[in-house]
Amino acid sequence: MNGIIRIGIGYEECTDREELAGRVQEAQEIIQALRGGPYEARLWGIPPGSVPPSAQFRSIDAILPTPSISGRGLIRLCALAEAAGLPRIGIGLRSAVLGSDRVLVRRLLSQSEVQLALFRTFTRSQWEKDRSFHLIETELTLGYPCQVRPAAGWGMAGPEDYVQSREELEQLVDRLMTTHDRVIAEEVIEGRLFVAAVLNGQSSQVIGVGELLAAAAPVERAAGEPEEEPAEPADDPAAQAAALARRRAGEPPPWTRLEMPGEADRELAKVVRRAALKAAAALHLAGAALFYYQVPKGRPPVLLTDAELAPSLGPRSLYARLWAHSGGSYRELAACLVENGL
Description:
Strand content: 15-25%
Radius of gyration: 20 Å
Distance between the termini: 8 Å
Low-confidence stretches: 217-234
Shape: globular
């Protein structure tokens, strides 16, 4: 493709004015970062419940989704682009579908002998039929602490997903089952946490490996010990707005900080790179992906604990930060993603 490449920055339109303003703002941030060079980035909204007019498809050459687009919205965007013959930058339809199902990803990886953290999963109907069985099985298989999340979703686990006792496990599963049909429980591995950014195409490459260090580790409590009051109330509008802004930008979680492996960890970083490439090959991905690995006691083997197959790609995202640590600018990352997508 010659000349200017017209990139639509895809975001979901909505009726909530404040929410819509936030989505447009994050799209504008990407447009600003891409200003200049061979790109002409523009807003590209996806109307709820309807297909954009054909003229809207003809106005662009490729689509780059915004960081805060929902899983369902991302799948819809990819399907619309597929039907219109438009390349998606940094994301494929298979990645969007697989990335929304944590259980399916782990089952596919286990078939390819990728080393994973232990996990258990059960549906709402299984839980309602015999919760005692699933509580005991989870306890015996994973132990405490363990982490519990919806089977559908993106991103790594946070402190709110940790449980320390059977009582906490039962309470969290009960709460999750009110809005989800299946949950996944996973073992918590003590060790170092690494993340690898992979760009998948005709040949996959690891563009960066970093270590996520705990800025505020989950607090371990004895069974029955009451939780401490949070530093910021959960209903604090300022705290909620700051958390939403971080999620929109795709920044590393606030309880972590990113550092690049030093000379002493060069061999360990190579092991993580090889493991990430093996996982990407097993899933047959296209576009960008993040793979998270725990290294028990700081040495191999490395165990895959999470995968983001449709990561945020904004200027402040974890993916962009790993690229920047390798010496590249965001515009250069965009060029790499566009070339890969086209």
